[in-house]
Amino acid sequence: MQGFSYHKPASTADAAGLLAANPEAKLLAGGMSLLPVMKQRLAQPSDLVDLAALADLKVIDTSGGGVTVGAMVTHDRVARSPEVKGAIPALAALAGGIGDPQVRNRGTLGGSIANADPAADYPAALLGLAAQVRTDRRSIAADDFFTGLYETALEPGEIVLAVDFAVPDGAAYMKMPHPASRFAVVGVFVARSGATVRVGVTGAAACAFRASSIEQALGERFEPGALDGIRIPASEMSSDIHADADYRAHLVRVMAQRAVAAILAGAD
To answer: What CATH number did the domain enclosing 223 receive?
Structure first.
Protein backbone atom coordinates (compact mmCIF):
# COMPACT_ATOMS: atom_id res chain seq x y z
CA MET A 1 0.00 0.00 0.00
CA GLN A 2 1.31 3.43 -0.95
CA GLY A 3 1.48 6.30 1.54
CA PHE A 4 -1.42 8.72 1.84
CA SER A 5 -2.69 11.56 4.01
CA TYR A 6 -5.58 10.78 6.35
CA HIS A 7 -8.38 13.25 7.16
CA LYS A 8 -11.40 12.92 9.44
CA PRO A 9 -13.65 15.93 8.69
CA ALA A 10 -16.27 17.13 11.16
CA SER A 11 -18.86 18.09 8.53
CA THR A 12 -19.94 17.29 5.00
CA ALA A 13 -18.78 20.76 3.92
CA ASP A 14 -15.31 20.03 5.31
CA ALA A 15 -15.24 16.71 3.46
CA ALA A 16 -16.25 18.42 0.20
CA GLY A 17 -13.52 21.02 0.73
CA LEU A 18 -10.87 18.34 1.21
CA LEU A 19 -11.99 16.57 -1.98
CA ALA A 20 -11.89 19.83 -3.92
CA ALA A 21 -8.39 20.61 -2.65
CA ASN A 22 -7.05 17.12 -3.35
CA PRO A 23 -8.21 15.81 -6.75
CA GLU A 24 -6.64 12.39 -6.11
CA ALA A 25 -8.40 11.95 -2.75
CA LYS A 26 -10.92 9.19 -2.04
CA LEU A 27 -13.79 9.04 0.41
CA LEU A 28 -13.57 6.32 3.06
CA ALA A 29 -16.86 4.90 4.32
CA GLY A 30 -16.71 1.30 5.56
CA GLY A 31 -13.55 0.55 3.58
CA MET A 32 -14.74 -2.91 2.56
CA SER A 33 -13.98 -2.27 -1.12
CA LEU A 34 -11.46 0.58 -1.09
CA LEU A 35 -8.90 -0.78 1.38
CA PRO A 36 -8.43 -4.16 -0.36
CA VAL A 37 -7.78 -2.52 -3.74
CA MET A 38 -5.35 -0.11 -2.08
CA LYS A 39 -3.47 -3.05 -0.59
CA GLN A 40 -3.25 -4.53 -4.07
CA ARG A 41 -2.10 -1.12 -5.39
CA LEU A 42 -4.99 -1.02 -7.82
CA ALA A 43 -5.93 2.33 -6.26
CA GLN A 44 -3.42 4.84 -4.93
CA PRO A 45 -5.25 7.87 -3.56
CA SER A 46 -3.19 10.79 -2.30
CA ASP A 47 -5.61 11.32 0.60
CA LEU A 48 -8.33 9.41 2.43
CA VAL A 49 -11.28 11.45 3.66
CA ASP A 50 -12.93 9.40 6.41
CA LEU A 51 -16.67 10.08 6.87
CA ALA A 52 -16.91 8.15 10.16
CA ALA A 53 -17.40 11.28 12.31
CA LEU A 54 -20.41 12.59 10.36
CA ALA A 55 -23.35 11.69 12.59
CA ASP A 56 -25.90 13.17 10.18
CA LEU A 57 -25.00 10.44 7.67
CA LYS A 58 -25.85 7.69 10.18
CA VAL A 59 -29.57 8.37 10.51
CA ILE A 60 -32.50 6.08 9.66
CA ASP A 61 -35.74 8.06 9.34
CA THR A 62 -39.29 6.94 8.53
CA SER A 63 -41.12 10.10 9.59
CA GLY A 64 -41.85 11.25 6.04
CA GLY A 65 -43.80 8.20 4.95
CA GLY A 66 -40.83 6.61 3.18
CA VAL A 67 -37.57 5.19 4.52
CA THR A 68 -34.45 7.35 4.51
CA VAL A 69 -31.15 5.61 5.22
CA GLY A 70 -28.02 7.69 5.73
CA ALA A 71 -24.98 6.93 3.64
CA MET A 72 -22.89 5.85 6.66
CA VAL A 73 -25.50 3.44 8.05
CA THR A 74 -24.03 -0.05 8.15
CA HIS A 75 -25.65 -3.09 6.58
CA ASP A 76 -26.11 -4.58 10.04
CA ARG A 77 -28.05 -1.53 11.25
CA VAL A 78 -30.35 -1.71 8.22
CA ALA A 79 -30.89 -5.43 8.84
CA ARG A 80 -31.69 -4.92 12.55
CA SER A 81 -33.61 -1.63 12.33
CA PRO A 82 -37.19 -1.94 13.65
CA GLU A 83 -38.15 1.02 11.42
CA VAL A 84 -36.84 -0.65 8.26
CA LYS A 85 -38.29 -4.03 9.23
CA GLY A 86 -41.67 -2.43 9.81
CA ALA A 87 -41.78 -0.39 6.60
CA ILE A 88 -39.81 -2.47 4.07
CA PRO A 89 -39.00 -5.90 5.51
CA ALA A 90 -37.45 -6.98 2.19
CA LEU A 91 -34.82 -4.24 2.49
CA ALA A 92 -33.88 -5.37 5.99
CA ALA A 93 -33.69 -8.99 4.80
CA LEU A 94 -31.48 -7.99 1.86
CA ALA A 95 -29.07 -6.17 4.19
CA GLY A 96 -28.94 -9.18 6.50
CA GLY A 97 -27.77 -11.36 3.61
CA ILE A 98 -24.81 -9.21 2.61
CA GLY A 99 -21.39 -10.82 3.09
CA ASP A 100 -20.56 -11.98 6.61
CA PRO A 101 -20.89 -10.37 10.06
CA GLN A 102 -17.60 -8.50 9.66
CA VAL A 103 -18.69 -6.98 6.35
CA ARG A 104 -22.16 -6.16 7.65
CA ASN A 105 -20.75 -4.36 10.68
CA ARG A 106 -18.31 -2.23 8.67
CA GLY A 107 -19.80 -1.87 5.20
CA THR A 108 -22.18 1.03 4.55
CA LEU A 109 -25.07 1.74 2.20
CA GLY A 110 -23.37 4.79 0.71
CA GLY A 111 -20.07 3.03 0.18
CA SER A 112 -21.77 0.09 -1.49
CA ILE A 113 -23.77 2.08 -4.02
CA ALA A 114 -20.94 4.52 -4.77
CA ASN A 115 -18.64 1.58 -5.52
CA ALA A 116 -21.35 0.04 -7.75
CA ASP A 117 -19.99 -3.48 -7.73
CA PRO A 118 -21.96 -5.37 -10.40
CA ALA A 119 -22.78 -8.13 -7.89
CA ALA A 120 -23.71 -5.93 -4.91
CA ASP A 121 -27.17 -6.37 -3.41
CA TYR A 122 -28.31 -2.81 -2.67
CA PRO A 123 -28.48 -1.65 -6.33
CA ALA A 124 -31.34 -4.08 -7.00
CA ALA A 125 -33.26 -2.64 -4.05
CA LEU A 126 -32.67 0.95 -5.16
CA LEU A 127 -34.10 0.15 -8.59
CA GLY A 128 -36.98 -1.95 -7.30
CA LEU A 129 -38.01 0.64 -4.72
CA ALA A 130 -37.72 3.69 -7.01
CA ALA A 131 -35.16 5.18 -4.64
CA GLN A 132 -33.64 8.64 -4.78
CA VAL A 133 -29.94 9.06 -4.00
CA ARG A 134 -29.37 12.37 -2.22
CA THR A 135 -25.94 13.95 -2.47
CA ASP A 136 -24.44 17.22 -1.31
CA ARG A 137 -25.42 18.68 -4.72
CA ARG A 138 -28.66 17.08 -5.93
CA SER A 139 -31.05 14.13 -5.89
CA ILE A 140 -30.49 11.33 -8.42
CA ALA A 141 -33.16 8.78 -9.35
CA ALA A 142 -31.97 5.19 -8.98
CA ASP A 143 -32.89 4.60 -12.62
CA ASP A 144 -30.19 7.13 -13.57
CA PHE A 145 -27.62 6.32 -10.90
CA PHE A 146 -25.95 3.08 -12.07
CA THR A 147 -24.34 3.71 -15.44
CA GLY A 148 -21.83 0.90 -16.02
CA LEU A 149 -19.24 -1.44 -14.53
CA TYR A 150 -18.23 0.24 -11.25
CA GLU A 151 -19.62 3.47 -12.68
CA THR A 152 -22.31 5.80 -11.38
CA ALA A 153 -23.76 9.21 -12.17
CA LEU A 154 -21.75 10.75 -9.31
CA GLU A 155 -19.53 13.63 -10.37
CA PRO A 156 -15.97 14.10 -9.06
CA GLY A 157 -16.09 15.21 -5.45
CA GLU A 158 -19.83 14.53 -5.06
CA ILE A 159 -20.78 12.96 -1.72
CA VAL A 160 -23.70 10.59 -1.14
CA LEU A 161 -25.65 11.74 1.92
CA ALA A 162 -28.63 9.35 2.06
CA VAL A 163 -30.99 7.19 0.07
CA ASP A 164 -34.77 7.77 0.14
CA PHE A 165 -36.77 4.60 -0.44
CA ALA A 166 -40.46 4.51 -1.35
CA VAL A 167 -42.52 2.06 0.72
CA PRO A 168 -44.21 -0.54 -1.52
CA ASP A 169 -47.32 -2.61 -0.89
CA GLY A 170 -45.12 -5.70 -1.00
CA ALA A 171 -41.54 -6.57 -1.90
CA ALA A 172 -39.06 -9.43 -1.83
CA TYR A 173 -35.44 -10.01 -2.76
CA MET A 174 -34.14 -13.37 -3.93
CA LYS A 175 -30.59 -14.16 -4.94
CA MET A 176 -28.28 -16.99 -5.88
CA PRO A 177 -25.31 -16.14 -3.63
CA HIS A 178 -21.71 -16.95 -4.35
CA PRO A 179 -20.87 -19.55 -1.67
CA ALA A 180 -17.74 -17.74 -0.47
CA SER A 181 -18.33 -14.00 -0.87
CA ARG A 182 -22.14 -13.99 -0.62
CA PHE A 183 -22.19 -11.56 -3.54
CA ALA A 184 -25.09 -12.14 -5.91
CA VAL A 185 -24.44 -14.42 -8.86
CA VAL A 186 -27.90 -13.10 -9.70
CA GLY A 187 -30.20 -11.18 -7.38
CA VAL A 188 -33.71 -9.92 -8.16
CA PHE A 189 -35.73 -7.40 -6.12
CA VAL A 190 -39.45 -7.26 -6.93
CA ALA A 191 -41.62 -4.48 -5.52
CA ARG A 192 -45.37 -4.02 -6.02
CA SER A 193 -47.21 -0.75 -5.43
CA GLY A 194 -50.81 -0.86 -6.61
CA ALA A 195 -50.75 -1.84 -10.26
CA THR A 196 -47.10 -0.84 -10.66
CA VAL A 197 -44.38 -3.48 -10.49
CA ARG A 198 -40.67 -2.70 -10.47
CA VAL A 199 -37.96 -5.33 -10.82
CA GLY A 200 -34.32 -4.58 -10.07
CA VAL A 201 -31.64 -7.07 -11.10
CA THR A 202 -28.05 -7.30 -9.87
CA GLY A 203 -25.19 -9.71 -10.50
CA ALA A 204 -26.35 -10.54 -14.01
CA ALA A 205 -24.74 -7.80 -16.10
CA ALA A 206 -22.14 -5.04 -15.95
CA CYS A 207 -24.38 -3.04 -13.65
CA ALA A 208 -27.79 -3.31 -12.03
CA PHE A 209 -30.78 -2.87 -14.33
CA ARG A 210 -34.57 -3.06 -14.43
CA ALA A 211 -36.13 -6.08 -16.13
CA SER A 212 -38.83 -4.39 -18.19
CA SER A 213 -40.23 -7.59 -19.75
CA ILE A 214 -40.74 -9.10 -16.29
CA GLU A 215 -42.30 -5.87 -15.01
CA GLN A 216 -44.78 -5.84 -17.88
CA ALA A 217 -45.76 -9.48 -17.42
CA LEU A 218 -46.25 -9.06 -13.66
CA GLY A 219 -48.20 -5.87 -14.17
CA GLU A 220 -50.73 -7.86 -16.17
CA ARG A 221 -50.79 -10.90 -13.88
CA PHE A 222 -48.93 -10.90 -10.57
CA GLU A 223 -48.09 -14.54 -10.05
CA PRO A 224 -45.01 -16.70 -10.72
CA GLY A 225 -46.65 -18.43 -13.66
CA ALA A 226 -46.88 -15.13 -15.53
CA LEU A 227 -43.14 -15.40 -16.12
CA ASP A 228 -43.09 -18.94 -17.54
CA GLY A 229 -42.75 -17.66 -21.09
CA ILE A 230 -40.31 -14.86 -20.35
CA ARG A 231 -36.88 -15.23 -21.88
CA ILE A 232 -34.14 -12.84 -20.81
CA PRO A 233 -31.62 -12.28 -23.66
CA ALA A 234 -28.38 -14.02 -22.75
CA SER A 235 -26.52 -11.57 -24.98
CA GLU A 236 -27.11 -8.91 -22.32
CA MET A 237 -25.77 -11.04 -19.46
CA SER A 238 -22.24 -11.47 -18.09
CA SER A 239 -20.18 -14.65 -18.25
CA ASP A 240 -17.40 -15.53 -15.81
CA ILE A 241 -16.03 -18.45 -13.81
CA HIS A 242 -19.10 -18.42 -11.56
CA ALA A 243 -21.85 -18.59 -14.20
CA ASP A 244 -22.22 -18.20 -17.95
CA ALA A 245 -24.60 -15.80 -19.65
CA ASP A 246 -27.26 -18.42 -20.41
CA TYR A 247 -27.41 -19.55 -16.80
CA ARG A 248 -27.61 -15.99 -15.52
CA ALA A 249 -30.45 -15.24 -17.94
CA HIS A 250 -32.27 -18.31 -16.59
CA LEU A 251 -31.63 -17.26 -12.98
CA VAL A 252 -33.13 -13.80 -13.52
CA ARG A 253 -36.50 -15.37 -14.31
CA VAL A 254 -36.27 -18.00 -11.57
CA MET A 255 -35.29 -15.49 -8.86
CA ALA A 256 -38.09 -13.18 -9.98
CA GLN A 257 -40.60 -16.02 -9.71
CA ARG A 258 -39.38 -16.84 -6.22
CA ALA A 259 -39.66 -13.19 -5.19
CA VAL A 260 -43.23 -12.99 -6.47
CA ALA A 261 -44.12 -16.18 -4.61
CA ALA A 262 -42.65 -14.73 -1.42
CA ILE A 263 -44.67 -11.51 -1.81
CA LEU A 264 -47.90 -13.45 -2.37
CA ALA A 265 -47.17 -15.70 0.62
CA GLY A 266 -46.66 -12.63 2.80
CA ALA A 267 -49.97 -11.17 1.63
CA ASP A 268 -51.95 -14.25 2.71
So the answer is: 3.30.390.50
In a domain, 130, yes or no: no
Q: Are 232 and 213 in contact (CB under 8 A)?
A: yes
Per-residue pLDDT of the chain (268 residues; tens, 9 = 90+): 788 999 999 999 999 999 999 999 999 999 999 999 999 998 999 999 999 999 999 999 999 899 999 999 999 999 999 999 999 999 999 999 999 999 999 999 999 999 999 999 999 999 999 999 999 999 999 999 999 999 999 999 999 999 999 999 999 999 999 998 999 999 999 999 999 999 999 999 999 999 999 999 999 999 999 999 999 999 999 999 999 999 999 999 999 999 999 999 986 5
Alpha-carbon span 132 to 169, nearest angstrom: 18
Amino acid at 255: M
Strand order of the sheet with strand 139-141? Answer: 60-61, 67-70, 160-165, 132-135, 139-141
Please state the pTM of the whole predicted model. Answer: 0.96
Phi and psi at residue 73, in whole multiples of 5°?
-75, 130
- What one-character DSSP code corresponds to residue 180? T
**Max Cα-Cα span within the chain:** 57
Report helix, strand or coil for 177.
strand
Question: Tell me, what CATH number does 29's domain have?
Answer: 3.30.43.10
Show Cβ contacts of residue 90 under 8 Å, excluding neighbours closer than 6 positions: 125, 171, 172, 173, 189, 191
Q: Which domain holds residue 180?
A: 170-267
Is residue 91 in a domain?
no
